[in-house]
Structures are given as structure tokens and as C-alpha cells.
Amino acid sequence: QVQLVESGGGLVQPGGSLRLSCAASGSFFSINDMGWYRQAPGKQREKVATITSGGNTNYADSVKGRFTISRDTAKNTVSLHMSSLKPEDTAVYYCSAAIRVRFGVVLPYWGQGTQVTVSS
Questions:
Q1: What is the three-class DSSP state of 107?
Q2: pLDDT tens, 81-96?
Q3: Backbone φ, ψ for residue 56 (5° rounding)
Q4: Which residues pair with 25 in a beta bridge?
Q5: What b/e readout covers 76-88, taking b as 16+ CB neighbours within 10 angstroms?
Q6: What are the tens digits of pLDDT across the range 26-58?
């Protein structure tokens, strides 16, 4: 059973920083792309940032220059460092991963979500 477990959400003031982490556990061959998505109340889930197995990153325009995604391939973890946070960054943040569970089979997995609230 493959699981993604997130940690690090919480309440932060505008302009502050927060770091989210996500660890993959279970039985699998390898992990391809990993990423972070978010969903604010009344809105659709949107991509925040992704990172390939080779370390190439991609960011939503709204977070470029403020958020940094990184991964530790050996530990099967992905992190999101968020700085200069704005109230509009408030959302539930979800970790995602494309995991090779056996030869020729890659499946998408999601974490349970962690709340990030930016408010004074």
C-alpha cells in the first residue's frame, strides 16, 4: 500500500514563511514526477509546483519567486518552501506523486492534504 503523508501546514501571518513536507511510503519501484497542488474554498484544485525525477521544476505563475520545491530521491520526499505568503495562498495543499508500482505501471497518488492559512 503506497501512501503519501504530508506535514507542515498551519497558520502564518502575511509575509511569513512555511515549509511543507511529504513522504512516500510502501512498496514501489520508483517515483517519477512529484508535486504540490492546492484547493481554496469554492475553487478548483490547481497546480502549485512540480519536480521531475531529474530535478526539473515548474511553478504556477502566482508563486514564482516565492515558493521553492525540492525533493530527496533517496528518502522519497518532496518539500515546498513558501515565503512572502499572501492571504490568497490560503488553501488545502496536497502532495502528489506518479509512482511506478511495478514494471510498466505508473499510478498517481495523493496525500490527505494539509491546511495552510495566511492571516493576520
A1: strand
A2: 999 999 999 999 999 9
A3: -75, 135
A4: 3
A5: bbbbbebeebeee
A6: 999 999 999 999 999 999 999 999 999 999 999
